[in-house]
Amino acid sequence: MIRVTDLDSYMASFDGEPGYLDWAAFGPLAPAVRTEVQADTELLGSGRRTSIQLVDDHERQARELVARLIGTDAAQVVLQPSTTYGLMHALYGIAGGLMLSRAEFPSLTVAATRASESFGSLHPQWVDPVDGFMTPDVVRSALTEDTRAVAVSLVDFRTGYRADLAALREVIGDRLLIVDAIQGFGMVQADYLAADVVCGHGYKWLRAGRGTGFAWFGERALERIAPVLSGFGGVDGGLPVDTVPAPAPSARAFAVSRVDTLAAGRLATALREIVDVGVANIESVLSERAADVMFFADRYDVPVITPRDPERRAGIVTLEPAPQDAAPLSASLVNHGLTVTTRGGRIRVSPHVGTGADTLRLFGDALAAFASARVW
Ligand SMILES: Cc1ncc(COP(=O)(O)O)c(C=O)c1O
Fold first, then answer.
1. What pLDDT does residue 374 have?
2. d(CA 257, CA 85)
3. Which among 104, 110, 157 is the best mutation to test ligand 1's pocket, defined by most ligand atoms within 8 Å of the CB?
4. How does DSSP assign 45-84, residue by residue?
5. pLDDT of residue 120
6. Angle at the Cα of 133 (from 309 to 114), degrees rounded to 5?
7. Does the C-beta of 157 come closer than 6 Å to ligand 1?
8. pLDDT tens digits for 283-324?
9. Are 11 and 285 in contact (CB under 8 A)?
């Protein structure tokens, strides 16, 4: 296997079958991740303490790599089973108003509702942006005295809109900014330090498989968010027997039990490649792939709801065909061997950096076949 250290080898490492345009749903695992997991399972099968320790060390490596991509300290990063776990730690620990869009992925909407119903200390402040975009203006006009925090997706799972974290920070002042970054982490440059909590998961764009979640809690978050769901894994020192110490003063407090070290190994392997290749390089190619998808959509008059501005999008391009066109367009995509997500009449197309000309050609052919049969 070629070690991935630069953009060319990264692009060449996409070895899945042509036709896959659903990275926003699931990311076929990277070759290095597959190799790593095999080596780690062998180490864990040996029964040697040193081998077990080698695999345990992946937790530190993964936290350091997440921290590096955020631009922070590894002590503020804690591994999680998934994005939703990290977001739940954050939301359950907040008191006061939490502003969020009703159209957010259910990780946020369900956690906010449950936290409010269970404890009554958090009050969801729902907003319904017309186009689903949580822009600084939408947030500004919905802020109230009671708003203590704002939760947004870095990249919206439906529309592909990329939030402007720095602009949101300017609008919300000293309030907490909680970010679900799963649809953009490692793929686009973001001003994470403008946020207070950033949660993600490596099973889509990072190609690391499930179980590879992580969360960053910055200074303000550590001061203001109570570690309500903290378990024995959230304390400093060894196993706390015959005593119950306070939660750790770091992000570690937002842990329940011990981490899955095999998952940490997958995450570390995937992130190491991304750090080596560089997020800016990845972003520039991903932006071109998304533009390729838009090009074909425009050519065959299929409306796109994702913003055109490269700074306001990432790898998701959402098509919104006329109601009578949705089913035939979907069918044409399937018939041409393409994998996309169709939901509520919209078609979400999500290429990755390694999406090749063969897949794009299939996409163009599928749109051409649909267009030639379309009744205006
Ligand atoms: C915006 C967003 N958040 C969260 C998730 C999934 O969360 P988890 O990592 O807990 O599976 C998805 C999955 O599609 C998503 O699109």
1. 83
2. 12
3. 157
4. HS--HHHHHHHHTHHHHHHHHHHHHHTS-GGGEEEESSHH
5. 79
6. 145
7. yes
8. 999 999 999 999 999 999 999 999 999 999 999 999 999 999
9. yes
